[in-house]
């Protein structure tokens, strides 16, 4: 849990639009809700994960906060838009509301919501399978706000037995050449797998 929440030491949260990809328990997204995000959209491949894990966890945390806020005398209450989306990374952009569109995407006409893009994309432990890394990366490029949007990726340096890890993913990002990657934090205790937090952002001259 500390590894996931570490991301938020570097983020100004209020009034921004978030997406958490491969959300699972949804801890980073829930934290963004608690800190006043304008919108947090949770995505996972499995609808069952959302129904049985993410939604109950979000409801348990956010309902307590709503009750606490209601009992206080406050002049500003930030109502976070919380939504849940299930689907494969290669297709889920078709139903996500805040997706970048250059007018060439045939699916953009199917979305009725305005296109704001996501200010911040969050993901943790999503790059363990090499076979899924490309579709995840393409989804990030479709979703992140430009200019100014960023993606925070928390992951292990190596996922032994499955082949993925930050090095493989970052190699793909570097080869593509449209995003910059900056190491934000490294968690290493000398006895277990090294964990890292990376910040990805679109290059200023990128048209992709």
Quantity of strands, as a count: 7
Mean pLDDT: 80
CATH topology: Rossmann fold
Cα shape:
globular
Describe the structure.
This is protein-histidine N-methyltransferase. Residues 1-26 form the signal peptide. It is found in: Cytoplasm; Nucleus. Helix content is 29%, strand content 22%. Residues 1-11, 69-77 and 104-114 have low confidence and may be disordered. The chain starts with a helix and ends in a 6-residue tail after the last strand. The protein has a single domain (2-10, 12-70, 78-202), classed as Vaccinia Virus protein VP39 (Rossmann fold, 3-Layer(aba) Sandwich), CATH 3.40.50.150. The chain has 208 residues and is α/β, with parallel strands linked by helices. 34% of the residues are buried. Helix 4 packs across helix 5 (166-176). It is built from five helices and seven strands, in the order αβαβαββαβαββ. A seven-stranded mixed sheet has the order 3-2-1-4-5-7-6, sandwiched between helices. Strand 4 (120-124), helix 4 (130-143) and strand 5 form a beta-alpha-beta unit. The chain has helices spanning 2-5, 27-34, 47-70, 130-143, 166-176; strands at 17-21, 39-44, 81-86, 120-124, 150-156, 179-187, 195-202. The longest helix has 24 residues, at 47-70.
